[in-house]
Each structure stands twice: as C-alpha cells, then as structure tokens.
Specification:
Elements (H helix, E strand, L loop, with lengths): L5 E4 L5 E5 L2 E5 L14 H23 L8 E8 L6 E9 L9 H9 L2 H7 L12
Antiparallel strand pairs: 1-2, 2-3, 4-5
Helix pairs in contact: 1-2
C-alpha cells in the first residue's frame, strides 16, 4: 500500500503537503528567512508525536467512558546544545485527581502504541531522487 503526498512550493520559505482532501502548510521563522505564517516542518513532525500519543490516550479513555476534558499531554523536547539534535522527548500525561488508579499504567501503554513513535524506533528508508516531468 502506498500513499502519495504532493509537495508544493508556495513562495519564499512556504512549503505545503497536499493529500486526500487536506493541505498542511509550513513556513519558517523570520530568523530563518521565513514569514512565520505556519509551523515549520520540524515543528509539525514533533507535534505529530504528541498528537499521536494523544489519539491513543483519548481512545483508551473513551472506550472506558473516562472523560478526557481534564487530561492533557505535555511534550518536552530536549536538544543537544552542541549538535542541536533532539536527544530525548518526554510525554507527561497529566491526569485529573479522580482518574482511576487501576488505569494509570494502562494509559501509558496506550500512549506507547503511537504509530509515529513506532516508526521512529524502526525508521523507514528515505530515498531522494530526481525525475524529469
């Protein structure tokens, strides 16, 4: 099975991805020559980790009729000062005081099933080529 994303160049540092009926727009911060009109591609990548975990936490809670209104995830990104590469990402699932104790470990396991996280643990090959139209 394959998915196609059409990537377009929208002026200056703006780049968009189009797939299914969606378009995701990106830009760069002004200090990187962009106009700061949208998140950067890397910020979207990082956000996909937390939102993916959030999907699995929400699904876990919804299947048990646990309200999710007072649950949140705080994602913290730790970078190496020299290389500027991300070295660690933490996801802190913040639960309300009335969250059932018996599900606290299970909600962590639910977040751990995030498919974005699984792809990072076993990354795909990325092949870059040129093609003439």
């Amino acid at each position: 099975m394959e998915s196609k994303f059409n990537i377009t160049f929208d002026g200056n540092k703006k780049v968009s991805a189009h797939f299914r009926e969606f378009s995701i727009h990106t830009d760069q911060q002004e200090i990187r020559g962009g106009e700061n009109t949208a998140p950067s591609p890397f910020e979207l990548f990082l956000a996909s980790i937390g939102t993916c975990a959030g999907f699995f936490v929400a699904s876990f809670c919804q299947s048990r009729s646990i309200p999710t209104g007072n649950i949140s995830i705080v994602q913290t990104v730790f970078r190496n000062d020299e290389t500027h590469m991300v070295e660690k990402i933490t996801l802190d699932i913040e639960l309300p005081p009335d969250f059932p104790e018996k599900y606290k470990t299970a909600v962590i396991k639910a977040a751990d099933t995030c498919i974005v996280k699984k792809h990072l643990e076993s990354p795909p090959k990325i092949i870059v080529e040129t093609k003439t139209r």
